[in-house]
Amino acid sequence: MTQEEEEVVLLDYWPSPFGTMARIALVEKGVNYIHKFEDLSKKSPLLLEMNPVHHKIPVLVHKGKSICESNIIIQYIDEIWKNNFPLLPSEPYQRAKARFLVDFINKKVHGSSIKVWMGQSEEQEDGKKELVEWSKFLEEELGDKLYFGGDVFGFVDIALVPFYNWFIVFKTFANFNTIEIECPKLVMWGERCLKRDSVSKSLPTSDQVYQAYLEFKKDEVWKDKSPLMPSDPYKRAQARFWADFIDKKIYENGKRIWTTKGEDQEAAKKEFIELLKLLEGELGDKPYFNGENFGFVDLALIPFYSWFPTFEKFGNFNIEKECPKFVAWANKCIHKDSVSKSLAEPNKVYEYVLKFKQQLGLP
Ligand SMILES: N[C@@H](CCC(=O)N[C@@H](CS)C(=O)NCC(=O)O)C(=O)O
């Protein structure tokens, strides 16, 4: 067999949940592969040839032959590299059930998530309600197990975790945190999965997901002439850097304020104020992070402002006293219609945190 025939190639698109599933399965099995990214607005001749029916990614090309559809790809990977970590249960009923759940996720969870991404207000609300319903069902299926198949990560986990990643992004874009309140076990499962190397290496960042979202919604975004991203490439890179910084630092650090006590909490508060001061430095004397107009960094940061009263109550400190410029910026943002309509209410955040602490057994 020639080297080319032995090669494993994945035709992919970074933000795709279906592409992510194939990536996770390959990493779990330790398979070396060549990653080829597609521009979905200008599909390559290779993609058209390898998936002549749907013209969609992901496509796995193995020994010169193509395998299409994410769930079929995962099962193929499991069957070919079968001596490593099994992804599907060996017992036929459990295997059938896992296939049913993956089909459910691909149809229902994906369908409702698309409504949240793309839908206007009413449709988006429907999508959110449906996602809560599907999540409750999935939480029941999970029961007290670590993963859907029991003690080990497998097929159903691979299919669901890219959507769990979307739920996290929906918190910012669609004011969606009901799952955290209603399905704590599912959230714990999601966080457990995110810690796996195969998952963290394969999932797109929230910036990549957001870019894909903008691409999908291009017409709508440009129609009202309010681009969220700066047009200058360097400024765009800077905006992405700060949004990533916010994503990584602000949530984790804020969480430390309400989950710790004593010295740890003091350290978390100090670090939190330092983070805000760094952001104040980046803001400078501009009204918004990108200058005159509300944009990407403002949008990534402002949802956390709803959490500030909770941080202040648990941490017994006053953020405005330490970072007045930051609070002035936040007050400007919350008077914008798009923000005031979308932000979570601070008292609901506080109630949620209280409930979550109780569930975690924290004092
Ligand atoms: N059922 C397919 C769905 C794959 C899919 O929807 N791929 C999208 C990217 S997320 C795609 O290639 N879209 C291009 C198109 O629809 O033209 C699977 O599970 O693999």
Automatic annotation (TrEMBL):
It catalyses: RX + glutathione = an S-substituted glutathione + a halide anion + H(+). GO terms for cellular component: cytoplasm. Transmembrane segments: none annotated. Its EC number is 2.5.1.18. Pfam families: GST_C (PF00043), GST_N (PF02798). InterPro entries: Glutathione-S-Trfase_C-like, Glutathione-S-Trfase_C_sf, Glutathione_S-Trfase, Glutathione_S-Trfase_N, GST_C, GST_C_Tau, Omega/Tau-like, Thioredoxin-like_sf. The keyword Transferase applies. It is an enzyme of class 2 (transferase). Keywords: Transferase. It comes from the Eukaryota. Residues 6-85 form the GST N-terminal domain. GO terms for biological process: glutathione metabolic process. Residues 91-216, 232-356 form the GST C-terminal domain. PROSITE patterns: GST_CTER (PS50405), GST_NTER (PS50404). One of its GO terms (molecular function) is glutathione transferase activity. PANTHER family: GLUTATHIONE S-TRANSFERASE, GST, SUPERFAMILY, GST DOMAIN CONTAINING, GLUTATHIONE TRANSFERASE. Belongs to the GST superfamily. This is glutathione transferase. It comes from Solanum commersonii. The lineage of its organism: Eukaryota, Viridiplantae, Streptophyta, Embryophyta, Tracheophyta.
